Amino acid sequence: MNNVKRIYVEKKAPYAVKAKELRTEIRNYLGIKNLDSVRILIRYDIENVSGETYQKSLGTVFSEPPLDLLTEETFDAGKKDRVFSVEFLPGQFDQRADSAMQCVKLLGGKEDPVIRSAITYILSGDLTEKEFESIKEYCINPVDSRETDEV
């Protein structure tokens, strides 16, 4: 019950409005025209939850099956895609994780889940290292967030 489970939730292509908007912003404001596509995945690390509650929560708390793609532990990315993840700094309130914890508590009753979230960006296109760094600077607000590993 203590092992950490990791899931990734991504909007299906027709509903990936934020990803399309971010691609447009990067191309227009940063002038990076060779960015082909952007994918945004919400990463959840879940612990202290029974297998039964975990399974129930996948399609109710963490995703909406008609709108979202949910993968466990890993995600698909192209070999040339650039990937980075952003999490809140310690001490910053993570509303997404807090809401998920409250909902999982309702499903599980006596369980006391611990949930952390992050946003994973997958960038496709022929990006230089400088362009990739510019995109990261654009996406990460250093006041409340930091880049985190995918490990």
What does this 3D model show about the protein?
Helix 2 packs across helix 3. The protein is α+β, with helices and mostly antiparallel strands and 151 residues long. A 6-stranded antiparallel sheet has the order 3-1-2-5-4-6, with helices on one face. It contains 4 helices and 6 strands; from the N terminus they run βαβαββαβαβ.
In a nutshell, what does this entry contain?
By secondary structure, the protein is of the alpha+beta class.
Features:
151 residues; alpha+beta; 6-stranded antiparallel β-sheet; 4 helices; 30% helix; elongated
* Strand order in the largest sheet: 3-1-2-5-4-6
Q: What is the count of β-strands?
A: 6
Compute the separation of the termini in Å: 20 Å
Kindly estimate the percentage of residues that lie in beta strands according to DSSP. 25-35%
Uncertain regions spanning at least 5 consecutive residues: none
Shape: elongated
Structural class: alpha+beta
Helix content: 25-40%
Domain count: the total is 1
Helix count, DSSP H or I runs of 4 or more residues: 4
What would you report as the Rg, rounded to the nearest angstrom? Answer: 16 Å
Order of helices and strands: EHEHEEHEHE
Largest sheet report: 6 strands, antiparallel
Mean pLDDT score: 95
